[in-house]
Here is the input.
Amino acid sequence: MIDNIAFNDVPAQWEEIRENSLRRVDELGKRGDYIGGKAIQEFEERFSSFVGSRYSVGISNGTDALKIGFQLFDLNSDDVVIVPANTFIADYLAIKNCPTSQPKVVLIDHYEDYTMNMEHLSEYLREHRNSYRKVVVVPVHLYGHPCNMDLLDLMRKEYDLLIMEDCSQAHGTKYMGKHVGYLGEVSVYSLYPGKNLGALGDAGILTTDSEEHYNRARSLRNYGSSRKYHYDELGNNHRMDTIQAIFLQEKLDLLNKWTEKKREFAEKYLSGIKNKKVKLPQISDDVYHSYHIFCIRVDDRDSFMDYMNKNGITTIIHYPIPIHDTAIFEGSDEVYTSSLTDACKDQIVSLPIHPYMDNYIQYIIDKINSW
Here is the structure.
């Protein structure tokens, strides 16, 4: 048995960036521009180039980036935000932290590839679009699989939608050859340490092609101030740490390589796992999946996870409790559809997936096949 196969291996990433990072941290210390310094601008420009956006705004973390994104849309109680029922709680929390009156939240179920069901979304819009002033749709590219952006684009035009893409698990993901984030008026990425592109602490980034959104997001992350001691609206201190921008820029140089390694291991999972009790993820055609998470489904999850743990393999659940089953879900919000989300919540299991699995990918597959 191999001991302690980690779900992710962020220390190995550090070893790849350590030398350059320490040199650049020393340069930062000598410059002293610790807040909003040179490294922030450099990383923002590099990230924009990587994803193909006009502007990027470095922010303190992904949840704060979501908060700023929703604030840019100037939402109130006459509006609605539509999110997947199976997304992480941060999307819901960010909506509930809108500084003015809050919009309604509607939850939509997912496809077998775990992204928002566009047919259900279309049905909801046909029935209810005229009930709201603004409709914001948040396509979450969950686990690194892109949503169906062609269908969403058609609905955006037909129903006058605002789009905010949650790309927090999709750095490097592409739909029809284009990096996700291209459709949203605003797109948001968490840069939490375990993400495809992760800091050595908390960080996030917001991208947009709108100069107005860019300038306002920069103000909102800095107390709502575009000029020192002048406060234009209710902002907050949501600035990215300059030292994190250094680490992130070093990792960005390696992201394509790391993504290709994860895709290699994902293909080995897909071709090598033969156990009929294990349901493999469904991957849509014409997508470039970044495999932030490799999610399978099993009926007896507790037994499976216990078996994997006894064989030294760490597994995790993303996510065991849907938003509408949490204590904070408000009765004024709506679950439009959630049957697959409800069915999957007791079955989903995430297998280890990271760029450093050469020595034990076959061991994991063999153990799964023996379960």
Notes: The domain at 254-370 is CATH 3.90.1150.10 (Aspartate Aminotransferase, domain 1). The two ends are 14 Å apart (CA to CA). The first strand starts at residue 55 and ends at 59.
